[in-house]
Amino acid sequence: MTSTHDFEATTADGRRVPLSEYAGKTLLIVNVASKCGLTPQYEGLESLYRDAGSRGLEVLGFPCNQFKEQEPGTDEEIQDFCRTTYDVTFPVFSKIEVNGPDADPLYRYLRAEAPGDFGPQYGGFYDAISKIRPDADGTDEVKWNFTKFLIGRDGKVIKRYEPPVPPSDIKTDLENYL
After folding, report:
1. What are the residue boundaries of the structural domains of the chain, listed by start?
2. Region 93-106: what's the mean pLDDT?
3. Which of 19, 136, 148, 165 has the CB geometry, 3.0–4.6 Å to 141, for a possible disulfide?
């Protein structure tokens, strides 16, 4: 696999979608959860999508229940939550795993291309996650919900943003790729 466009994703209603359908667009791929302290980032992600969608941005949400079971719902419940709580209009796909032996191939690729910079610069968040997941420190694993990957129009990974980085802080970088 040479780019994000070489992968497929499953929609919440079970359809397989080739990510090549997003060729020519800038992507922000995010693992999401509805019962996390970072869940309000949905609002910022939706704001980015509404502001830049007409200029080629697609936000793609991938629910994941691997972090303290903060996404326990069914795909249908997740869709309802996103619509009714945050008025999400960007695609939120079927629930996946982002780490471990059952990690979705897309996420294995994203992690390898952008291992991240999770460290003490994230302050209290780093301290908390390091206690919860000490085995993940120093690995390319997704550390928590709302890890964001910026993907260029060519499908190549540009940058990884760790969970505490709010969507508003990504806006400047996005402008360089839209």
Report:
1. 1-10+22-27+47-152
2. 97
3. 136
